[in-house]
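Hi X.,

You mentioned you wanted examples for the new student's onboarding notes, showing what a folding record looks like when two proteins sit in one file. Here is a clean example. The first protein comes first, with its sequence line followed by its structure tokens.
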Amino acid sequence: RVKDVDFDNGCISVHDGKGGKSRNSLLPTRLIPATKQLIDRVLVIQQEDNAQGVGPSLPFALDRKYPSAYRQPAWMFIFPSRTL
């Protein structure tokens, strides 16, 4: 998700990865511009989805606790699925 990329520190947070563990992984400096471009593109997709009243799925009960959270850019997937 967009919120899991930290450009300032050059890292990506991985949640519930292999073995159910969470960790940080390095984001190579040379990939930062391409990653920013990718995020810009998925945020356009999110705006289009939000205009239709839909957005990315939220973990656990966050969608009930924060009904409009799906509109926040932080929750958008960087590699969204083309189909559901």
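Then the second protein repeats the pattern, sequence line and then tokens:
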Amino acid sequence: MKYQQFTAAAITALSSAAIVSAAPRPLAARDSAAGDLLGGVLGGSKSGQATYYTTNGVQDGTCSFTGYTLPAGIFGAALSDSNWNNAASCGACVQVHAPGGKSTKAMIVDQCPGCGENHLDLFPDAFQDLAALSVGVLDVQWDIVPCDIDSPISLKAKDGSSQWWFSMQVVNSNLPVKAFEVSTDGGKTWQETTRTSYNYFEKSGGFGTPNVDVRITSETGEQLVVQNANSASNAATTGTANFKA
């Protein structure tokens, strides 16, 4: 959880001259079938405001992406707690559109408490793609889009995870994750896990074995299976593929 560069009270106090409003305009066309499907499933474009903050939201953010490095060309962002939905957007990428046709891509890595619905608190480099930092607050439109990551998906077990208490997250995904299931019998049956607000999928009591198969379902319905994932404390397992962009 982070403190914003501009708090909700500060935003209210800003003069109208400091706020750049985006006139209604068509957004750039999505360039993939996955993008089209994401728009339909997740409700399409959102209108809100964007600010920026300077704390390291990747390493210290509510999405718990400690140790992760953002892919080239993707910045970071904190999403309003009004849109948080129990961390369902963690790792999702957003294409943010500002006045004058400028845009930037950012990954949701953190939560922005008290920011208001559809608000994005961007990393400074992302905000500077849209406007000078001195502007402070922008009216923006944004869509959840595929991240276009070339490398495979990765799984990370939480500190303390074991065969008796299971806790694992998805990292480096091209698409938002909808479901996370575990199999201990080679994929014959699958067991559900519970998503947490800090972006881990858990099962109290664990699965009785340190190595499991994991089936991940994206918001578009695509599925990936990672075999022999290590659920031991802080273990990382790299998959062989990523969701199609």
